[in-house]
Amino acid sequence: MSSYNPAMNWFVDPRKLHMPKPEEALPGRLAVMPVPDRHAVLGTPLRPPYPAGMEIAEFGMGCFWGAEKLYWKMPGVYSTSVGYSGGFTPNPTYEEVCTGRTGHIETVRVVFDPTKTSYAELLRAFWEEHDPTQGMRQGADQGTQYRSAILTHGEAQQVAAEASRDAFQKRLSAAGHGTLTTDIRPAAEFFFAEAYHQQYLEKNPNAFCTAHPVGLDCPVGLFA
Question: CATH number, domain at 65?
Fold first, then answer.
């Protein structure tokens, strides 16, 4: 079954817009997805262990190709990778995630040096570079995998993420925008996406992943 969305001029399977229950999720597999040893731009490892002192942040903000490029270009970022988080299916494939039957979010993992940049700066980029009010989509990309999310690592990140959410909601409301739909929760297991998705926009310079920001800034001073 599909429903026609006139605004998007295409058909959308309504099942892709609703989170599956755990018992409805695809079974997945035990095999871990193989990924390159090194980042195609930064030259750093994609998989842990990472150097001592590095921290991990994870964000879902629509298509993970563009989100990854946003973060690998930021000062203080040691490595980035893309994968699937927040769902039920172990080691899912991209095709499975696209069915809406795994519950996963397209996620960018950011490994950063807190002595060179702050988690607050990563949050600022998150809020400013996508539309966190759209629910199960970003622009023309529709489905549960495109929902806005912050997957936190530790209590300090959880507190900072919630403070930034409250601050940005005030900015949105004052500008006449809607209510945030961003899911903020402790990170569960991160499943690396297929090798061809890693640093996709570097490997495919003619490809694109359109961002959909609301056009408001979120200065760190509002919440940090």
Answer: 3.30.1060.10
Helix (H) or strand (E) holding 64: helix 64-72
pLDDT of 1 above 90: no
pLDDT score of 5: 45
- Give the CA diameter of the chain: 51
> What is the pLDDT confidence band of residue 210, given thresholds at 50, 70 and 90?
confident
Beta-strand runs (E) in the chain: 3-5, 10-12, 55-60, 77-85, 105-112, 137-138, 141-142, 149-152, 183-186, 191-192
Q: What is the DSSP letter of 38?
A: B
CB count, 10 Å around CB of 209? 17
Q: Find out whether the peptide bond into 49 is cis, omega within 30 degrees of 0.
A: yes
* Domain range enclosing 93: 33-213
- The answer to the question of residue 183 being in a domain is yes
Residues annotated as catalytic (active site), given as ranges: 63
Of 141, 106, 107, the C-alpha closest to 17 is: 141
- Does residue 8 belong to any structural domain of this protein? no
pLDDT of residue 11: 60
CB 45 within 8 A of CB 152: no
**What's the average model confidence in pLDDT over 91-100?**
97
The number of domains in the chain is: 1
Question: What pLDDT digit, counting tens, does each position of 130-158 carry?
Answer: 999 999 999 999 999 999 999 999 999 99
- Is 220 contained in some domain? no
List Cα–Cα distances, 166 to 76, 130, 132, 151, 212, in angstroms: 26, 16, 12, 16, 20
